[in-house]
Amino acid sequence: MNVRPNMLTPSPITSTAVQDVLSHCKSLSHIKQLHAHILRTVSDHNLNTFLFNLSSSSSSISLNYSLSLFSSIPSPPEPFLFNLLLRNLSRSAEPRATILFYQRIRHAGGRLDRFSFTPILKAASKVSALFEGMELHGLALKTAALSDPFVKTAVLDMYACCGRIVEARKAFDEMPQRDVVTWNTMIERYCRCGLLDEAFKLFEEMKCSNVMPDEMILCNIVSACARTGDTRYNRAVYDFLKENDVRMDAHLLTALVTMYAGAGCMDIAREFHTKMSVRSLFVSTAMVSGFSKAGRLEDARDIFDQTGKKDLVCWTTMISAYAESDHPEEALRVFEEMCRYGTEPDEIAMGSVVSACANLGVLENAKWVHELTHRNGFESSLTVNNALINMYAKCGGLDAARDVFEKMPTRNVVSWSSMINAFSMHGEANDALTLFARMKQENVEPNDVTFVGVLYGCSHSGLVEEGKKIFASMSDEYNVTPKLEHYGCMVDLFGRANRLQEALEVIESMPMAPNVVIWGSLMSACRVHGELELGEFAARRILELEPDHDGALVLMSNIYAREHRWDDVRKVRRGMEEKNVFKEKGVSRIDLNGKSHEFLIGDKRHTESDEIYAKLKEVVSELKLAGCVPDGGSVLVDV
DNA sequence: TTAGGGTTAG
C-alpha cells in the first residue's frame, strides 16, 4: 500500500480517498500509516473523515483504534464525532465497550445529543446494565432528549431487557404518542417474559388506537399464539390476516407455518408454506414434524424428500416420525441413509433410533442397535441409556435392561422409572418394589411416571395391599397428584383381584371424568370374573363415550348370547358390520433364531401350522388334567 | 453523521 505520493511533501488526500484507502486497510499497521499521513498533512477535516470511517467499520481493529484516538483528543469531543462509533460499538461483539466509552465521554465533560442515547441504551439492554441504563434515563430527562420518541422507546426497551417489565410499561404509558415500533417493542418484551395475556391485551388496545399492525408485530403475536397452545387463537389470527390483507414476509410466514404445524392444522400450514419463495430448513422441518404428528406420514416424507440440504434435526424428525408411528424398519433405513450422507448422530437422534428398535420388539435388533450406540460413543449418555432400558424391556430383554441400568454412570428419575416399569411389564413386581425402595434410599424423587410403573406392577402381580399403600403415599408423602392413569391402575388392581366393588368405588371417587380406558379396565375384570351385570354397566358407559368401541360391543353381544337374547345379539352384530367395526385382534410374536413368527387368533398361515396346533392341543389337555379349564365365555360369538 | 421492533424444527 502506498499512501504517500511524495516522500518529502505529502499532499492532503480527499475524503473519498481516505474512505477508499481505509477500506483496503487489513491490519493495524496499515491504519497507523494512513493516520500518520493524515497528521502530516495537518487537515482537521481529513482527521474527522478518518475518524468517521474508522468508526463506521465493523472490524474490531478499526473500532479499537478510533477508541484510542478519542482518548488522545484533549478537549471533550462533540457528539457528531463519536455517535457513529457508539452505534458500531453497540452492534459489535463487545457491546459493553459502548458503556465504557460513554463513561469516558462523561468523565471528559463531553455532552450527549439525542442521537447518542439510543446506542448506549441499546448496549445497556444487551448486557443488562440496569444501573447505567437508569443513569441514562435520568440524563435524558434532564437534557430533554427524552422527548424524542426514539430515545423513549430505547429507555422502555432497556428496562424490559433488564428484567424490569413494570418500569418498561410505565415508560410506555408515559409516551404521548406511540407508533407501531413502540407498540411492538412493548408487546415483544411481554412475550419474551411469558406475559402472553398482557401481550394480547396490548395488541387489542393497539388496534383500537388506529395504529395498523405490520408484519413484525404480527410475527410476534403469531409466535405468542403458538406458545399458548390454545388453538382458539389460531383461527382468530387466520381471520385477521385474511380480513386485513396483510403483506407477509418470510419471518411472518415462518411463524405462521410453525404455529399451524405445531397445532396440527396441516392444511393451513401447507397453505402458508406454499406461499414461501425460499423455504428454510426450519420451516421444512416444522412441516415434517407437523405432518408426522398428524399421522400423515406420506406428506411428511414428501416434504422431507423435497428438502435439499438436511441437518441433524431434520433427519431426526423424520426418523422419530417413523419410529413413533409403527414403521420402525423405515426409521432405521432413514438413519442409515443419514449416516451415509456423513451426518453424525447426537443423543437425540440416537435415542430415536433406539426407540424405533423398541417398537420393532425384536431382541436381535435391539442388541444390534445397542452396539451401534457404543460404536458412536454414547456409552455414558443418560438419554440414550434410558432409551436402551425401555427398548430392552419392550423386546423381552429384562436382564439386558437391568445390565444397562446397573452400568449407568449417572441416573435420573427417568432411568429409575424405566427400570421399575421394565420389571412391572415382566411381572416382576417384587423387583419393581425393591428398586422403588432403593430409589428412595438414593434420594431420587419419584414423579407421576414412576408411580404408573409401580402401580402397574402391583396390579399385574396381585399385590393389592401394597398397591393401595403406594397410591395413598403419592399425595401423602411425595406430593404427586394422581392422574387419570393412576386411577386406572387402581381400577385394574382391584378388578384383577376380583374386588369389583372397590374398583367401582375408585371410579366413583375420581376427581376427573373416567374415560374409555378406565371403564374398559372394569369391563374386562367383570368379564374375567363373570360379573355380567356390572360388566354390562361398564360396557354401556363405554358405548356412551365411544359408540363404536369394539370390545364393549363384543361384550354386549356375548352377554345377550348367554341370556339367549338372539335378536339383540344379531342387532349388535349387524350394527358392527354396517359400521365396519371389528374386534381388534391381538398379535403374538415369537423371535426364534433371528426370525420373527407372528400369530393371530385362529391363524393358519404359518408353514408349520399343523404341528403347532397339534402341540397346542397337547398342552391344553395337559392343562385340563392339571385342573385348568379354559374359559370359553368371551369367545362365544366372537369366533 | 447518526436512531427504536421480529420468527424458527428433533
TrEMBL record:
Cited InterPro entries: E_motif (IPR046848), PPR_At4g14850-like_plant (IPR046960), PPR_rpt (IPR002885), TPR-like_helical_dom_sf (IPR011990)
Pfam families assigned to the protein according to its UniProt record, in alphabetical order: E_motif, PPR, PPR_2
Biological process according to GO: RNA modification
One term of GO molecular function: RNA binding
Keyword Coiled coil carried by entry: no
PPR repeats: 179-213, 311-345, 412-446
Keyword tags: Repeat
Family: Belongs to the PPR family. PCMP-H subfamily.
Protein name as annotated: Uncharacterized protein
Gene source species: Brassica carinata (Ethiopian mustard)
Origin organism lineage: Eukaryota, Viridiplantae, Streptophyta, Embryophyta, Tracheophyta
